[in-house]
Records
---
Amino acid sequence: MRSVVYLAWRYLAYHRSKTAVLALSIALILYVPAGLRVLVEQSRRELTARAAATPLLIGAKGSPLELVLKALYAGGETPPPMRYGEVARVAASGLALPIPLYIRFHTQGDPIVGTTLDYLAFRGLRLAAGRRMARLGECVAGAGVARRRGLKPGDSVGSSAETLFDVAGAYPLKMHVVGILAPTGTPDDQVIFADVKTTWVIEGLAHGHQDLSRPEAAPGVLRREGAHVTAGAALVEYNEVTPQNIGSFHFHGDVSSYPITAILAVPRDEKAATLLMGRYQASGEMHQIVRPLAVIEKLLGTVLTVQNFVVATLAVVAAATLATAALVFLLSLRLRRREMETLLRIGASRRRIAALMASEIAGVVGLAAVLAGLLTWVTATSGAGLIRRLILH
Amino acid sequence: MIRIRDLEFAYPEGDFRLRIAELSVGAGSRTAFVGPSGSGKTTLLNLISGVALPQRGRVWIGATEMTALSEAARRDFRLHHIGMVFQEFELIEYLTVLDNVLLPYRLSSRLVLTPQVSRKAARLAARVALGGKLGRYVGCLSHGERQRVGLCRALLTEPELVLADEPTAGLDAASKALVLEVLLDDVRRRGATLVTVTHEAELLSRFDQVIDLRDYQAAVARQEVAP
């Protein structure tokens, strides 16, 4: 038997290109359904675990899925904003603890999540180094972001301009990293946390600039009419919050009208959750309230249906590929007829020649299985990251 | 060693017919089959080795009646008792020189491939000036070198009978001399029987017995006319 396997191996090694193409074709046929299954299962685990740990989400009316993907995973399309004043409405109801989330800006591609310290406490996020954000302009980096970018307390990160040509937009804000979170294996590892007010500074709703009453600000003052001062572009606006200039930062307009993405509502109990949901069912209500788990399960239902269609299609493709592989083997047998005749003339038994052919087929299928297994393993190990990149971003 | 009685063979298509009333080849002898193209020399080698079966008649090799054996038994007998040198070499392209020489050992369930056998194969290859090309694929070899690989493969198992179908055809003078020398020396040394098909008259003096198939066909024809 060893001799037969050796001869089969020599044949496959000699025709290595043909062997590689055949093995790769069969490997892909084996891998795609297996990889897809692994990926879907990981998606299900990844999405469900996070959703199950989030009781209720309130957002502006629109796509519940967009709201959930943004609020839970900081990914996907940005849903329409809601007013910050809604936080006070939920708090006043006494039914749930409202945690605001403003997820719109990025720093070098990493999402900036504007929230409150309640969020860190609710998710059980622990610090690996430094302290939590306490002042305007401070931020805390998730473990993944910190590892990838080599961040540590004392470093700074700049918010990215939303569009390159938005000359009227807010200046990028240089934020101070004051803490690094311990890894959690959740999307929280891949974001930068800041106070929601800091994100409003990034947006330009709050800003700090030179004191107009000071002589050094005079070149920036266009007009003074009593208490009303009109300033020009020469006025120095701060793009970093420092102990020296923090006093100059101020908010314009009604803070309750400021935008946020969602409110993570943590109800007292199930009854409070039901009552709160009831309050958002009224006609004319401008907001929606969703149970993230229900939204994700609906999404997974769609994903599973699509997966079934894909698997069914793959079955047809697999049959075609295997038929082609069989054809290649048969044609190869025709081409090797003289070789077979030689072996028979020397005295090889038909059984041995059949074993040789079977070993060659087994070699190709075995190689394909190893390749498919390897690819499936890679998918399983890097699937979570892949899901975040492919689905959420 | 070889006995043939009342042999008659015809291919399913065409009018070729080989008829031999009686033919014997002594054990340990060196015999050459001669005759013009189409006289049935290669066919006779195939009938002796059991690759083909006659429609009539009997063929013995030693005490074994080849014509009475099953196809599987004939193949097994060939593998273990006959060394065959083919005119077209019949080498396996995906095997190296050494692996081609060792092929009978890889095809047999009784022959055991040991390091000693591999060393013996290497020595044999060195005798035919292929010692430095053991690891080469046979597709890279010249015509003469390929024939020498085929010769080594036929001799490695030390068969009692060597059947060689025009082993020197198309070879240059040096290769021809080398192949013939090794072939004759090997069978002489071991006391094996050699049957060769050849067209080359200048080689016939090296054989103990020369059988012209035209004579055998004519004898059968005379017998048929006589009554």
Note: The mean pLDDT of chain A is 87.
---
Amino acid sequence: MLESEIWVTRLFNDYLAGAANAALKLAGLQAQARPWTNSMAMQIFVAALLMLVFAVLRLRLSVDKPGKLQHVFELVYEFVLGQAEDQVGHVAHKYLAFFGTIFLFILACNLIGIIPCFSCPTKDYAVTCGCALATFAYYHWNGILENGWRYPLQFMGPMWWLAWLMFPIEIISHLARVLSLTVRLYANMFAGEQVTIVFLGLVPLAVPVIFMGLHVFVSVIQAYIFMLLAMAYVGGAIAHEH
Amino acid sequence: MTKKMLLMLAILMLGATALSAQTPGQPAATTNWVPVGACIGMALAAGLCGLGQGKAVASAVEGMARNPGAAKPIQLAMLIGLAFIESLALYEIVIVFKLT
């Protein structure tokens, strides 16, 4: 089902088609007339928007007279730090950048789809797969940094004579983590939008608002769960073997 | 009881010949089983998800009733659990939308 372009994608396709085609050629794919898709353009738009908000926040940071934006982001920081310390332990502050970024990025991507002129990037499985692969790479990288060559030992299981069985099971379960992160976020966003569309077709007035409200709630919960799972995986990866 | 069931079986068998009547000369109508399978799968997923979420909410509410001071953490844990159970049914809805 081809989707029509929103204004963000049209701007990207009109002015930045060359950049996208260069990237496609690098990957060995064919250059196209209008290479940017809605989800790709919206992802970059959300990232730029978040960077703009953080730039404004940074300029307005103050110890004596904190403004409203600073209060909001202090709340977000305390929340993410609290959750990370529950899952990871005392060293949570080292990984806070990734957790906060993934939470705010996925939250912004999920919520921007509800605003009429924008499209939700996370309803495309490629976007959620990107977030899941980034999390996968992050926790394995930090596990190797923390544990060194002992890192694969945690895949061997509790007893050495079970290692031949535990190793393939652990590998499959780690790959299943990527799959479940991808499909959980994608399915929630895609289904939320489809349900709203279906009810808009049935009863155009008032009833779809309930489903849009549910979609907002689910968006926030799914962003929180993605962050929570990322924290749990990092916590498991950096745990020291006894 | 068995007489009633035998009577129902007889009516069903008589009705079957009438129901499967077709105009002669037509090839046997092939039903497309893909939407049927998708619907049955989605119904199963939704029903079992409902059971699971009901159990989760029941335990959470009972915990909150026993210990009203711990209502906030229990509510948080309940919401996380509900989201995980919900996502299992949502995997099925993705399959439905991909198949139909």
Note: The first helix of chain B runs from residue 2 to 19.
